[in-house]
Structure formats: C-alpha cells, structure tokens
Structure of Transcriptional regulator:
Amino acid sequence: MAINKVQQTLLQRMTKQQHLTVSEWQLLDHIGGGENTQEILAQQTRLDTSTLSRQLKGLVAKEMVSKEAIGRDKRQLVYSITPAGTETAATINSAFEALSDEVFEHWSTDERNLLQILLNRLDKSMDRQRNVKKPLA
C-alpha cells in the first residue's frame, strides 16, 4: 500500500535524525517499557533470535541500552534503557506524536475512534491468520 511506504519513509526520517533505525526505536520503546530479556523481547517483537541479538548489540554500541549478565551461570542478559536512550526515545516519540497530530488534524474524534476500532479489528484478524497452522505440503 502507498500509505505504508509514506509512513515508513517518514518514520525513517525521524529515527535517522537520532541515529537509529525504525526497528531500533521500536525495540528501545519495548525496553523502556520494561521488557528486558531477549526471551520477552522476542515474544513481544516477533523477531528471530539472531535479528534481535544484532539489534540489541547495535543499541548497546550506541549506548542507548546497557546489559547485565544475571543468574548462576551469568548467561541470561537483562537490558536496561540508559538516560541517553530515554532521551532519544522521548525525542522520536514526540516527533511521531506531532506527525500524528498533523495527519489527523482535520479528523473528528468519531472518525479517529472508528479508525482505531477498525485497525484493532484488522490486527486481531491478522493475528488469527498468523496463528493458523499451515497444512503440510
């Protein structure tokens, strides 16, 4: 869809100004929200382990998150958002909110609510389809 391409371009522009990718920003938001282990992050983001590890490594290198090894064998990592990460996420989130306000400035509250209801319904339908087991070939 053309809307998706425009949205992706605008999001890339916002995140690039803060030296992050859209995926890194979304991951930073998850970590800032308390999702702090790879297991939890993988479930919430639906990313495979290698992609998630690569993105987390990038956020650690950019000093947006820190990691700490825990447990008896120190093999489990817990991620925490840093002050720089919190500030960066807040800046991008503010830009995103401003963009949303501009896009929807001529929409009534009822229209916005209807769109949200329909998007939630679409999301649930897509989740159901994703969870349907595929027949063996």
Residues 109-131 form the longest helix (23 residues). The mean pLDDT is 90. Residues 57 and 65 are 9 Å apart (CA to CA).
